[in-house]
C-alpha cells in the first residue's frame, strides 16, 4: 500500500505579511481621512462644486431718430436679421475655429476685412493639429510657446513663427477657407458675455433659418434682429447727419468710451450730428444678468432692465428747401462750366448757407462739386456741403459792411462823408490800388451800393494811423492795426468759429495772412487778404440783419422722447433757445445806415440790382463780392507725385450775402463760388447772383405753398366742425 500524500501547508514569508499589514493601515488612514473630510468639510466642498457667479452685460438698443423742422423723418432705423456670438468668460482661438468651420457652410461672409495677420493665425491653428510645418520653421527651443505667451510677449516663438510664414507659399486659401477665417475674425473680436455681430448685412431668410435650426451645434451663436440707419431723403444732407460705426468704438477713443460705460463692440456716432449728439441718440441699454457656474458656463440669463431706444432730434433744417437748394446749385454750376468750359476750367464747387438771423437756426446748407468725368465717364455731382464749414476763401467786397461799421465805430469816417473814388491809392514802394472803375465822389451809402474799393482803403489807412493821404508818400502805420481791424471783423464772426453744433474739429476758423505790410491792411478791408467759410459769412450778414446780435448757428432745435405708441415725434425733453454770442460795439444808427447801403445794393441800381431789383415781389438787402485769386498748375512726375508748381491762372471767388425781407429779416444767406473764370476782366457768368436769386425764390415759393396748404386745412376743419354742429 502506498503512502497517502500529505497536504502541503502554504507558508508566506514574514516580511510579505508585514508589507500587506502596512498597506492595510495606509488604506485605512485614507478612508478615515475621507470620512473626516466628508463629515467636517463636506458642505464646503459641495458649495465649491455648486458655486456660481453673476455677471451683468448691456445690450445696445436702436439709436434715436432725426426729424426736420416740419416733423419729416430724415434718419430712421431699419430692422435687420442678425447672427450674433456671445462668448463665455473663457474661450480661445481653437474653439472659435471649430465654431467658424460649422457656421461657414450656413452663411455667406464677406472676406474683405480679412488681414494678413488673420490668415497667419489661421495657418498656425490648422497646422497645430499636425505640427510638422511648424517644426520646420522653429528650432526645438523655439517650439515651447504657449497661447498665453502670444498675447503678452512680442518676442515669443509665436511671433517668430508669424514672421517665418511665407504668404505666397503658405497662405493661398480657397474661398471656403477665407470665409472661415472671416467668421473666426469676428468671433475673436467678441468680448465675454457681450453679444457681437457676426453678420447683419444681407442676412437672408434662409441663412437665418438654417442657423436657428442648428443653434445646439453652435455654442454662443444666436439669431436676433439688429438695426441700421435709414435715410428717407437719400444722400441729401448726409454729410451733416453723420455716420455710425459698424464694428465697435473707435480704437483711438477706447478709453474715453469705456469710462462712459460703453462696451467695446458698441456702435457710436463717428461724424456729424451722430457724433455731436451721441449721448442723446445712444439710448438706454438693456441689462442682462448672466449666472455662470464654476466651469464658466452660462446656466441662466435674465433681463434686469429693459432697454429704450435713443432720444430723437428735431433739426432746424427744412428738407424740402434743402433739396431745392441742391438742385439750384447743381443747375448753375453746370451752366457756368458747360457754357464757358475753358475759362471755368478750374471751377468745380459752389456753397450756400440759409439761416434764420433771429434764432441762428440753419434752414439749409448746400455744397456741390462738379466732376467732369473723362475716359468715357459722364460728368456727375458730388456732395460738397461740408465745404461750407471746412473750406475758406477770400470773400471780396461782401465784407465791406463790416469795414464801414468799423470806420464809424473808430471815428475815422462820418455819416455822409464824401471821398473821391476817381483817385487811386498809391504809397511809396507799394502797388497802385483802385476800384474796378472810377465811381466819382461818393459817400458811405454809395460806397456800399457801388462797391467802392477806394472808400474802404481810406477807412483802413485811417485806422492804421495815416489820416491825410498824399500820393507816393510813405504810409504811416501804427503797430497792431491789423489786429484792430480783425477784432472788428471777429465781432461779426469773421475769422472765428461760428459755434455750429457739429463736432468741434469739423469747423474751420478761416485763415489769416501773416505778412503785416502796411499795404495789406487795405486788402483786408476789401476782403482780399484773410479767408472765411460760407457759414462765417452767413453769420456775419445775420448779425447785421439782427441789429448787431451775433447768434450761434444751430442744426438741432429740440430733443424729444421716442414715441413708442405712434409713429410721430414724442414729447419735448429739451429745447435750445437762441444763444447770443456777442453784441457788436456799433450803435443802432451805425447798423441802420449800413442796412440802408445794403438795400441800395439790391434795390437802387447797386451791384445786385440786375438780378433782383424790380423783378421780385420781396425785398432783399446785402452785398456782392469778387475776390481776385490765382490757381497754380501742379507739376507731377511720371508716377503722379507732385514735384512742383507750374503756371498760374487768374480766377475770382464770387460771393453774395444778404437777408430778406429787408425791413424785417426772417432769412439770411451766403453764397460762395470759388475759382470762376475771367473774360476781359469781368465775370462771364454771375453764378453767385443766379444762385442767390433762385434760392430766395425757392424760399418764398415754399413759404407761400405752406401758407396755402395751412389755409386749406383750416378751412376743411372748419367745414367739418360746421357739419358736425348741423348734425
TrEMBL record:
Residues 351-691 form the Penicillin-binding protein transpeptidase domain. Residues 705-727 are annotated as: Disordered. Pathway: Cell wall biogenesis; peptidoglycan biosynthesis. Keywords: Cell membrane, Cell shape, Cell wall biogenesis/degradation, Membrane, Peptidoglycan synthesis, Transmembrane, Transmembrane helix. It is a single-pass membrane protein. Its main location: membrane. The keyword Isomerase does not apply. Residues 59-300 form the Penicillin-binding protein dimerisation domain. Residues 705-719 have a biased composition (Basic and acidic residues). The chain crosses the membrane at residues 12-32. It catalyses: Preferential cleavage: (Ac)2-L-Lys-D-Ala-|-D-Ala. Also transpeptidation of peptidyl-alanyl moieties that are N-acyl substituents of D-alanine. InterPro entries: Beta-lactam/transpept, Beta-lactam/transpept-like, PBP_dimer, PBP_dimer_sf, PCN-bd_Tpept. It is found in: Cell membrane; Membrane. Its EC number is 3.4.16.4. Belongs to the transpeptidase family. This is serine-type D-Ala-D-Ala carboxypeptidase. It comes from Pontibacillus salipaludis. The lineage of its organism: Bacteria, Bacillati, Bacillota, Bacilli, Bacillales.
Amino acid at each position: 500500500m502506498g503512502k497517502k500524500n500529505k497536504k502541503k501547508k502554504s507558508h508566506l514569508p514574514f516580511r510579505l505579511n508585514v508589507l500587506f499589514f502596512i498597506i492595510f493601515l495606509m488604506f485605512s488612514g485614507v478612508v478615515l481621512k475621507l470620512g473626516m473630510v466628508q463629515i467636517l468639510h463636506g458642505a464646503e466642498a459641495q458649495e465649491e462644486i455648486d458655486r456660481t457667479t453673476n455677471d451683468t452685460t448691456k445690450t445696445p438698443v436702436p439709436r434715436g431718430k432725426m426729424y426736420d423742422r416740419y416733423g419729416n423723418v430724415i434718419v430712421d432705423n431699419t430692422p435687420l436679421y442678425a447672427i450674433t456670438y456671445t462668448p463665455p468668460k473663457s474661450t480661445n482661438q481653437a474653439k472659435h475655429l471649430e465654431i467658424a468651420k460649422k457656421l461657414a457652410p450656413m452663411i455667406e461672409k464677406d472676406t474683405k476685412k480679412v488681414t494678413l495677420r488673420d490668415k497667419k493665425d489661421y495657418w498656425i491653428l490648422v497646422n497645430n493639429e499636425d505640427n510638422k510645418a511648424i517644426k520646420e520653421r522653429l528650432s526645438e527651443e523655439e517650439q515651447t510657446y504657449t497661447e498665453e505667451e502670444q498675447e503678452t510677449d512680442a518676442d515669443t516663438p509665436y511671433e517668430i513663427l508669424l514672421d517665418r510664414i511665407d504668404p505666397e507659399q503658405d497662405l493661398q486659401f480657397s474661398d471656403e477657407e477665407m470665409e472661415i477665417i472671416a467668421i473666426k475674425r469676428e468671433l475673436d473680436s467678441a468680448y465675454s458675455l457681450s453679444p457681437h455681430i457676426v453678420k447683419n448685412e444681407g442676412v437672408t431668410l434662409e441663412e437665418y433659418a438654417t442657423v436657428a435650426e442648428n443653434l445646439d451645434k453652435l455654442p454662443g451663436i444666436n439669431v436676433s434682429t439688429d438695426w441700421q440707419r435709414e435715410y428717407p431723403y437719400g444722400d441729401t444732407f448726409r454729410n451733416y447727419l453723420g455716420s455710425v460705426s459698424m464694428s465697435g468704438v473707435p480704437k483711438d477713443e477706447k478709453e474715453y468710451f469705456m469710462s462712459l460705460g460703453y462696451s467695446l463692440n458698441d456702435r457710436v456716432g463717428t461724424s456729424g450730428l451722430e457724433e455731436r449728439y451721441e449721448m442723446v441718440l445712444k439710448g438706454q441699454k438693456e441689462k442682462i444678468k448672466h449666472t455662470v457656474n464654476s466651469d464658466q458656463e452660462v446656466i441662466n440669463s435674465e433681463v434686469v432692465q429693459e432697454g429704450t431706444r435713443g432720444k430723437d432730434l428735431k433739426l432746424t433744417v427744412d428738407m424740402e428747401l434743402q433739396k431745392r437748394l441742391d438742385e439750384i446749385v447743381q443747375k448753375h454750376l453746370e451752366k457756368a462750366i458747360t457754357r464757358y468750359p475753358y475759362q471755368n476750367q478750374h471751377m468745380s464747387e459752389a456753397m450756400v448757407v440759409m439761416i434764420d438771423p433771429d434764432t441762428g437756426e440753419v434752414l439749409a446748407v448746400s455744397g456741390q462739386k462738379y466732376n467732369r468725368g473723362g475716359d468715357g465717364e459722364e460728368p456727375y455731382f458730388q456732395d460738397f456741403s461740408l465745404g461750407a464749414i471746412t473750406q475758406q476763401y477770400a470773400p471780396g467786397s461782401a465784407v465791406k459792411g463790416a469795414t464801414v461799421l468799423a470806420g464809424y465805430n473808430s471815428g475815422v469816417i462820418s455819416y455822409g462823408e464824401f471821398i473821391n473814388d476817381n483817385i487811386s491809392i498809391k504809397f511809396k514802394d507799394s502797388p497802385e490800388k483802385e476800384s474796378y472803375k472810377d465811381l466819382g465822389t461818393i459817400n458811405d451809402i454809395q460806397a456800399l451800393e457801388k462797391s467802392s474799393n477806394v472808400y474802404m482803403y481810406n477807412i483802413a489807412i485811417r485806422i492804421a494811423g495815416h489820416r491825410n493821404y498824399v500820393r507816393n508818400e510813405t504810409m504811416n502805420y501804427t503797430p497792431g492795426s491789423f489786429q484792430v481791424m480783425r477784432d472788428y471783423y471777429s465781432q461779426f464772426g469773421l475769422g472765428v468759429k461760428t459755434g455750429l453744433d457739429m463736432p468741434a474739429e469739423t469747423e474751420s476758423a478761416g485763415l489769416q495772412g501773416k505778412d503785416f505790410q502796411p499795404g495789406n491792411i487795405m486788402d483786408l478791408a476789401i476782403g482780399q487778404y484773410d479767408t472765411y467759410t460760407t457759414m462765417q459769412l452767413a453769420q456775419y450778414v445775420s448779425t447785421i440783419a439782427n441789429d448787431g446780435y451775433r447768434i450761434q448757428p444751430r442744426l438741432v432745435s429740440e430733443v424729444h422722447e421716442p414715441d413708442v405708441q405712434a409713429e410721430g415725434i414724442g414729447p419735448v425733453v429739451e429745447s435750445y433757445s437762441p444763444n447770443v454770442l456777442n453784441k457788436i460795439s456799433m450803435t443802432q444808427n451805425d447798423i441802420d445806415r449800413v442796412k440802408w447801403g445794403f438795400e441800395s445794393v439790391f434795390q437802387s441800381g447797386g451791384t445786385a440790382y440786375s438780378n433782383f431789383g424790380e423783378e421780385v415781389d420781396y425785398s432783399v438787402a446785402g452785398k456782392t463780392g469778387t475776390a481776385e485769386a490765382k490757381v497754380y498748375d501742379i507739376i507731377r512726375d511720371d508716377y503722379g507725385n507732385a514735384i512742383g508748381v507750374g503756371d498760374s491762372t487768374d480766377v475770382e471767388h464770387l460771393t453774395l450775402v444778404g437777408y430778406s425781407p429787408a425791413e424785417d429779416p426772417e432769412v439770411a444767406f451766403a453764397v460762395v463760388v470759388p475759382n470762376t473764370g475771367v473774360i476781359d476782366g469781368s465775370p462771364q457768368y454771375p453764378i453767385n447772383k443766379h444762385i442767390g436769386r433762385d434760392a430766395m425764390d425757392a424760399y418764398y415759393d415754399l413759404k407761400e405753398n405752406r401758407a396755402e396748404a395751412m389755409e386749406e386745412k383750416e378751412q376743411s376743419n372748419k367745414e367739418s366742425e360746421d357739419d358736425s354742429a348741423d348734425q
